[in-house]
Design goal:
Helix content: 10-25%
Strand order of the largest sheet: 4-5-3-6-7-10
Shape: globular
Mean pLDDT: 75
Number of helices: 7
Order of helices and strands: EEEHEEHEHHEHEEEHH
Bound molecules: guanosine-5'-triphosphate, magnesium ion
């Protein structure tokens, strides 16, 4: 397997536009000017094994695109910064404009997995920008804020949007963020679990007829409507970008799932995202209202 180099990502307000994979690959819009256009949304997937352009950086074996979505203020940017830099952006809330990205390479069972993580703006006025990015996403982290009931109620609308714009076999995870704010909590953990259970997730049944693994097929080439797709509830966790609770786990679980979908050998036991998240996730039973 070839080893690739990945560019170093930049800070949230200064996406490194020139360092992304170029051929059909994503190009970030500048913060503050993000609009669909020649330099804006990615119109092709970040394909595993595709070499990235640009200067020095870490090597990777496979690369995937992960998008964070959810209402404005739920903590998408903070979650990403916590995962990427291990820091919490306290203080004044600076709403994301358009779309932004960061890269991180993880070691997953000896394989270097590069996650290109796209931080979308939750504000309604940027929705059309976000739509343009969905179809190339391999995974989506859908966030609500446990201290904001409206952000929880809006999850259904986000799911409808995801089912309209994202690939049918996209890996999807629901996250209830800000569990550190125990006194302000208005959405119970059980409510999140219930919503995740009844929500429509779409996944790939391994061993489809013909041995096809549609998990990472290019846009338009997934097996939409085929018997290879099954529906089930969403993996769910509560997180805190402030304390770091379950943040690494959420991204690691996604990386493991995507890596296995793209590189699974017949002898390898199947990675089960739901089970992994359930087993590894640290509960927030301390923080129920
Ligand atoms: N207590 C607490 N506050 C958080 C947490 N995550 C984010 N916040 C705060 O919530 C506010 C919004 O966080 P952001 O990460 O900017 O929200 P966002 O979802 O990116 O918002 P948009 O960019 O507008 O879509 C900020 O003031 C953060 O400090 C968390 O886990 N706990
Ligand atoms: Mg943001």
């Amino acid at each position: 397997m070839s080893r690739k180099k990945t560019p170093k990502s930049k800070g949230a307000s200064t996406p490194a536009a020139s360092t992304l994979p170029s051929a059909n690959g994503p190009r970030p819009a500048r913060s503050g000017t993000a609009r669909p256009g020649p330099d804006a949304p990615p119109n092709g997937p970040l394909q595993p094994g595709r070499p990235s352009l640009g200067g020095g950086g870490d090597f990777y074996d496979v690369a995937f695109k992960v998008m964070l979505v959810g209402d404005s203020g739920v903590g998408k940017t903070c979650l990403l910064v916590r995962f990427k830099d291990g820091a919490f952006l306290a203080g004044t809330f600076i709403s994301t404009v358009g779309i932004d990205f960061r890269n991180k390479v993880l070691d997953v069972d000896g394989v270097k997995v590069k996650l290109q993580m796209w931080d979308t703006a939750g504000q309604e006025r940027f929705r059309s920008v976000t739509h343009a990015y969905y179809r190339d996403a391999h995974a989506l982290l859908l966030l609500y804020d446990v201290t904001n009931k409206a952000s929880f109620d809006n999850i259904q609308a986000w799911l409808a949007e995801i089912h309209e714009y994202a690939q049918h076999d996209v890996t999807l995870m629901l996250l209830g963020n800000k569990v550190d704010s125990a006194h302000e909590r208005v959405v119970k953990r059980e409510d999140g679990e219930k919503l995740a259970k009844v929500s429509q997730g779409r996944g790939v049944v391994r061993g489809c007829p013909g041995g096809h693994e549609p998990g990472l097929s290019p846009p338009g080439h997934h097996l939409a409507g085929s018997s290879c797709l099954q529906e089930y509830g969403l993996p769910f966790m509560e997180t805190s970008a402030k304390t770091g609770l379950n943040v690494d786990l959420a991204f690691t679980a996604i990386a493991k799932e995507l890596k296995q979908r793209s590189m699974k050998t017949p002898s390898e036991p199947r990675f089960r995202l739901h089970d992994y998240v359930k087993r590894e996730g640290q509960g927030a039973s301390c923080c129920r209202p």
